[in-house]
Each structure stands twice: as structure tokens, then as C-alpha cells.
Amino acid sequence: MEDRILARKLDVATDENESEPTLSAEDRFATIVEVLVNYPDVTVGTPGKKGFGSSALQVGGKIFAMINSKGRFVVKLPRQRVDALIAAGEGEHFDPGHGRVMKEWLTLEPTTQEQWLSLAREAMDFVASKR
Fold first, then answer.
1. Between 22 and 20, whose confidence is greater?
2. For residue range 49-95, what is the model confidence (pLDDT) as tens digits?
3. How many C-beta neighbours within 10 Å does residue 89 have?
4. Domains of the chain, each with CATH number or no CATH
5. Cα 32 to Cα 26: distance, rounded to the nearest angstrom
6. How far apart are alpha carbons 66 and 54 in whole angstroms?
7. 56: Cβ–Cβ under 8 A, 6 or more apart, which residues?
8. What pTM does this model have?
9. What is the predicted pLDDT for the residue at 45?
10. Residue of 71, 49, 46 whose CA lies nearest to 57
11. Could you tell me if residue 75 is left (phi over 0), alpha (psi between -120 and 50 degrees) or otherwise beta?
């Protein structure tokens, strides 16, 4: 039940009359964390670690979703899925800053119409399946 309430909170995070989300990227991500941290083997961040992925969602110790330093939502998905979402205009490949894009990582703007929670769940399942 709580899962549905939090999911609904994300669904209405964008005002119907505006293109901008009413929740910040960090607030939307915090809501996703509230939902997914209750799943087996899901944790947030790595204790004592700072920098890249320090507040990311992980399953079995592997990152599957995070907010990057530019306030964009980032998820790890199969390469074909990432390519399809990019082709649909929903996001772009993630570049962690060293000039080499990550082909299994998708970056989404806070204003994306794609549902963050469903993508985070998809990413969680994908990363968990690789263990």
C-alpha cells in the first residue's frame, strides 16, 4: 500500500499545466529510495564513501540508479533499452565526465515524461540479474 502511495506521489510530481516537475530531482529520487530500499539486497550508498555513487541506489552492492552532480536521474539498463529510450527522445547516454559515454547507462532530465520509478525498478531488476 505504501509503495502505491509513494508511486502516486511521483506520478503527480509534474503539474498537468506545467512542463516542469513540482518536485526537485533530489526529492523525486528520495521518494524512489523510500520505495525501493524495502526490496531485498537494496541499499543506499556506501558507508564512508564520498563522490561518485555515494548516495546511489544499489542492489547487491552494485549501483543501479542515482542522481548525478548535475541533478539528472541516471539508471543502468540493457544497452538496447537505453538505445530505444534515447531514440524516443527520453534521455541520453551517461557521461561520467571523462569523455567516454556509458552505453548501459541512461541520463534523464528532471522534466522527462518517462516514469522514474518504473525505470528504477527496471534498472534494479537488470542489475540484480547480472549477479
1. 22
2. 665 667 899 999 999 999 988 889 999 999 999 999 999 999 999 98
3. 10
4. 2-129 (3.90.1150)
5. 10
6. 9
7. 44, 45, 63, 64, 65, 66
8. 0.81
9. 85
10. 46
11. beta
Q: How many residues are present in the chain?
A: 131
Closest CA to 42 of 60, 30, 67: 60
Beta bridge partners of 107: 74, 92
Bridge partners of residue 21, in order along the sequence = 14
**Are 26 and 66 in contact, with CB atoms under 8 Å apart?**
no
> For residue 75, what is its C-alpha cell?
539508471
Q: Which residue has the higher pLDDT, 100 or 75?
A: 75
Q: Which phi and psi angles does 77 have, rounded to 5°?
A: -135, 165
Q: Which amino acid does the sequence have at 49? A: K
Residue 123 has pLDDT above 70, yes or no: yes
CA distances to 51, 60, 78, 95, 114 from 2, in Å: 31, 23, 29, 34, 22
